Amino acid sequence: MSDKQPIYVMPENVSRQMGKDAQRNNILAAKVVADIVKTTLGPKGMDKMLVDSSGEIIVTNDGVTILEEMEIEHPAAKMLVEIAKTQELEVGDGTTTAAMLAGKLLERAEILLDKNIHPTVIVKGYRLSSEKCMSILNELCIEVRDSSVLNHIAMTAMTGKGAEGDKEKLSELIVRAVDLVGEGREISKEDIKIEKVKGSGIEKSELVRGIVLNKERANKDMPSKIENAKILLVDFALEIKQMDKEARISVTSPEQLQNFIESEEKYLKELVWKIKDIGSNVVFCQKGIDDVAQYYLAKQGIFACRRVEKGDLEKLSRATGGKIISNLSDLNESELGNAERVEEVRESDDSLIYVQGTKGKAVTLVLRASSEHVLDEIERAVKDGLGDVISAFKSGKIVSGGGAVEIELARRLRIFARTLGGREQLAVEEFANALESIPEALAENAGLDPIDVLTELKSRHESGSFNDGLNLFTNKVENCLDAGIIEPIKVKSQAVSSASEVATLILRIDDVLISEGNSVGNRGNVPESYEGMD
What we know:
Elements: E1 14-18, H1 19-38, E2 48-51, E3 57-60, H2 63-69, H3 75-90, H4 95-114, H5 119-140, E4 142-143, H6 147-158, H7 167-181, E5 192-198, E6 206-213, E7 225-234, H8 254-277, E8 282-285, H9 291-299, E9 303-305, H10 310-320, E10 324-325, E11 337-347, E12 350-358, E13 363-369, H11 372-395, E14 397-400, H12 404-417, H13 424-435, H14 437-445, H15 450-462, E15 468-471, E16 476-479, H16 480-483, E17 486-488, H17 489-507, E18 511-515
Parallel strand pairs: 5-13, 7-8, 7-10, 8-9
Antiparallel strand pairs: 1-18, 2-3, 4-14, 6-12, 6-13, 7-11, 11-12, 14-17, 15-16
Helix pairs in contact: 1-3, 1-4, 2-3, 3-4, 3-17, 4-13, 4-17, 5-12, 5-13, 5-17, 6-7, 6-11, 7-11, 8-9, 12-13, 12-15, 14-15
């Protein structure tokens, strides 16, 4: 009988982790990500400074920005980054909550795994908990009453970020912007353009009815202001077409060279005449405009702007009713956009082009601040505020902030757990414990004793005050609805749903196969500096 030969199922460069090792490693990675963003939660949260390999600096406490800019390699940790991105895409706020809750759910699941409770039992309990939370949230929410409520939602979203000092001014601009472009419940963040201008203070920020571009006209001889604008939008260059690289032009006399140059000028001149003939007096071009074309445009009194981003060109199209043209051969007046006024305004070292009096419901938030870093953080804060206000505008439903919702969800989940007969009730109870980590982190980040705060919150909610949460402006537990600390229901429902989904997905993994060529390495571990964490 011959000796048994080893059977190779996988290549030698593939490492494998199975069973508890795989589960614990994935849970540890998720806990690390949650711990990174934990200190940024709430109005008293701290900021992170992120410096990339080229020396670019980002200072922020926005959860999704932190996670996106970090070079996270562990596959399980990347899943938490994905839910933060989804939260940002769907709502625009609550990214830190989603990532932190997912990490906490996995941390609490580890306790159950230590008790030899099977992962599928935990997964079932978590799914039941998530479904129950959606039902409870619908019971806790109230209808949006007026614009003052939307103002409070925007301020709650921006609190703790760089815009906090001017949150009243910015929240007013946000709500006005949503009111102007909102029609029924149909509205998107894409309907509201944000333009950043460096130089002035945040209090100089403004809302403009129309489109504002941080651009300047192509030539100083062009008019700086056009009334009753007829706007042409083109996505090709107003230049001589480049010849093929292999093309050669043979010139044997000065006359031939002169004729060649004149033919190019004639082409550009005819191009401008065609624009003039259809009645256009403003041109926005996605690409370049030749110097000769600029000269003829200026001579005809036409305002032109070049290198306009595609997204801005599309916004101009929606606002003015003009079509984006790819070929001038069949151009006619019906494809032009209309605006009452197009004007270039100089501000310090910047030029802004205002397109106002448009038929479409277009608005632009012009944000101003003293530096690029402050501007970027203001933009992130305003986007959070916009996301929350639009979400509340669409659904018409809000809930209390300050950890009030999480405490009430946890309380009712524990009651729900008693109705379950199997081990799933243990998973439901741990889901409730994970929810309590949100108000706990809010208190901890504010320098308060989290145990005292949680004890008082639980006591208040047991007595029926389910809108009571932590007001970090007074450092007291009080009715958050009355205090104006409110959030759209979508922020909470999306965070709970996403966190639960990713936690159950990771818990079901019991085998990790990683190629050594993968950047994660043949160990598939979290970075060495994280090893040995509790």
